[in-house]
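Researcher: Quick one. two chains, 678 residues in total.
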Amino acid sequence: MQLSADGWLTGTPSLQDTGVTLVELAVEDNGIPPLGDTLTFELVVKIGNTAPYFVTTRLDTGFEDIPYRFPILVQDAEGDSVTFRAASLPRWLALSPSGVLSGTPSLADTGIYVVKIFIQDNGVPPLSDSLTFELVVAINPNPPQLTFSLLQNPALTRHANLIIASDVRLKSAPDVVLITEKDTVNIPMIPLENTERLYQGKLAFSGSGVYRLQATATRLNGITGIADRTFSVLKMLPGREGTLVDPLNRVRLTVPADAVAEETFLICLPEEEGDRLVYRFLPHRPFDRPLILELRYDGEQVQNAGKLFVYRKIGEGWEALPSVVFPDRQIVRSAVEQLGVFRLGENPDFAGSNLVPTRVQLLPNYPNPFNPSTTIEYHLTDDGWVTLAIYNGLGQKVRTLVHRPQLAGIHRVEWDGRNDRGQRLPSGLYYYQLRTEKTVLTRRMVLIR
Amino acid sequence: MKGWIRWIWLLGFLGWAVTGCMRVFDPAYLDELIYQQLLEEGWMHFQNQEYDSALYKFSRARVKNPTAAAPYTGLAWTYMMMDELETADFNFENATLQFEVDVHAYAGWAFLKNALQQFEASNIRVDQALSLDSSWTFPYGLPLNVVDLWILKAENYFLLGDFSSSLQMVQKLNPDFSVDVSTPEGQMALAQEIERLQSERGGPGKRIFPLARDPFRLQFTDGFSKGWK
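Model:
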């Protein structure tokens, strides 16, 4: 503490300076002779202290069988730490030293509780407060929420394990039936060990069709809920073509003959991911031939159909697949070599157009004249057999570039200036001819060596 | 002098020919040849879905070499494909009781035990298969490999209620996945992650698709896509 010449006592006491101090002050005037006086003061330095108080004034309602967790908020002006204590708590409820009420009430615990909480700060002297709360534990009126997981055996694709998870404890294992067009089969469910809300059952698919798993589950309080998961199954046999249509008729997977080398059960599970629909296909395996995936879109909800793509899930992201849009049928088509998770999406940054060509076209090759290679682009309006061949100036066929069925869309083929035997052809005028089931188109090009 | 050399050559040739013929007519050598051929034919039939023929070949191979594991393995895989799970189980067991060790028997048995709801036994077979070949791939048509075994193990642990071990297996395939498996919510998320891995995973042993560079190159029958039904 300091005393200024004009009589001001100033300074900031610390915690160690608390207590009572005797301060003796002396004053003297400038008269002749100078006269003075003294005075002794008692200066008391106290610790600043205010009582903590409750910010929380009421508790949330608890529900039976749902974990209850409620942090009680308090404030202390000095920032002192506060300890919590409860006078009496129901047996299912605990209060942590940091002031969090937690516990899971059972059905028998429903009712209204009076909970008195004490708080005390660590000031000198410690100050405290208390508040009495009313805690209501009600019967949960919601039916149990069930989640299905289908785990297909990768070697025995006919067989799958089913896991059903409930958000609350159930009276007993859910009653599960597998409904198909032909029959309804009961699926016995057993509880998993070390958990109170998971159940497991076994499925065996009999053939192709739409399957609906329907589970009826009852909470401990007697409230019953029904949940279901619908999916499509395709029994693929080697040498036979197959089509898997999802239960909502929004997606279609065409599996060509010889795509599988063994009897395989393919599954399509539509799922909601956020606000969009995605399609999960099982099993995850490569195929001997590409499969054709067609997704339907709603023309009224699409801004620019030419920018639609089929997307495949890769890790946490999505990858756009080469796609063709058929606006008349409102479908987007893509060839996939492996199953997985797919969805439809619009890519506004895409500069081109995925719309299926409106007429068959054979475009000028580029570059032209060329050496050593050139690119030929053609557009197909329909799926079908296509032949693209090169002829020399004498009209002799020198190279067949394409001779196979192709999908509608835009196709590009590169020619390296060699014949079918791999020999380099001489400079000169050449013709390239596109032959489809309905059209024959021819153009010229010049090879310069 | 030239005559002696000619005689030596002739004797040498005769010796070689006689030894060769003796080997050809040696019943054990013949049996081994036939046994190997039967196995090859059995797997060929297996890949062509000709399961009855496959069973016939593997059964004959078993008669030729009753102490070998391979014929039992072939029989077991074939019965498994025919959905005769109990018979497949019996044959897998026989395969593993033989002196010879066959990784395909343990791997196949692991998938079968899962389908039979014997999850602990399935995991034991997974471990045995992986200890024999940590980069296992099934060579006879079915596109199965070590990743399928890992996911199977994760599923088995889950179904046994051992969520921590299940999570560890899942994290081998997706190290970023992390949940508190002591909570019901974490357990539920783990189940969904296993389901997701079954349909989205990559991993080693992925078969390279020969036509991947031209996804629109496709063999199909007429009228394969003429609109929705």
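Chain B has a mean pLDDT of 81.
Researcher: Thanks, that's what I needed.
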